[in-house]
Design a protein that fits this description.
The chain is mainly alpha-helical and about 70 residues long. It has one domain: Orthogonal Bundle (434 Repressor (Amino-terminal Domain)). It is about 50% helix and about 5% strand. It contains 4 helices and 2 strands. Strands 1-2 form a two-stranded antiparallel sheet. It is globular, with a radius of gyration of 11 Å. The protein starts with a strand and ends in a 5-residue tail after the last strand.
Length: about 70
């Protein structure tokens, strides 16, 4: 499954909060919640995050095998 654990470290390193994502960068609250729950988001959202955070996709998301 795709997880967004790297996103939170990237945001911490760059001093960006979820409030900043919502208010300054206009990422919707529901999208932030989906990211927190490792739920699916669009590739457009991932592209926007890469652009806004000036980072690569690997700094936002990674693949982890399911535990089943």
């Amino acid at each position: 499954m795709i997880v967004y654990t790297p996103l939170w470290e990237t945001m911490r390193r760059k001093g960006i909060t979820t409030y900043t994502l919502r208010e300054k960068y206009r990422i919707s609250g529901s999208t932030v919640q989906r990211l927190k729950r490792n739920e699916s988001v669009s590739t457009n959202t991932l592209s926007d995050l890469c652009r806004l955070l000036d980072c690569r996709l690997e700094e936002i998301a990674c693949y982890e095998p399911d535990e089943d």
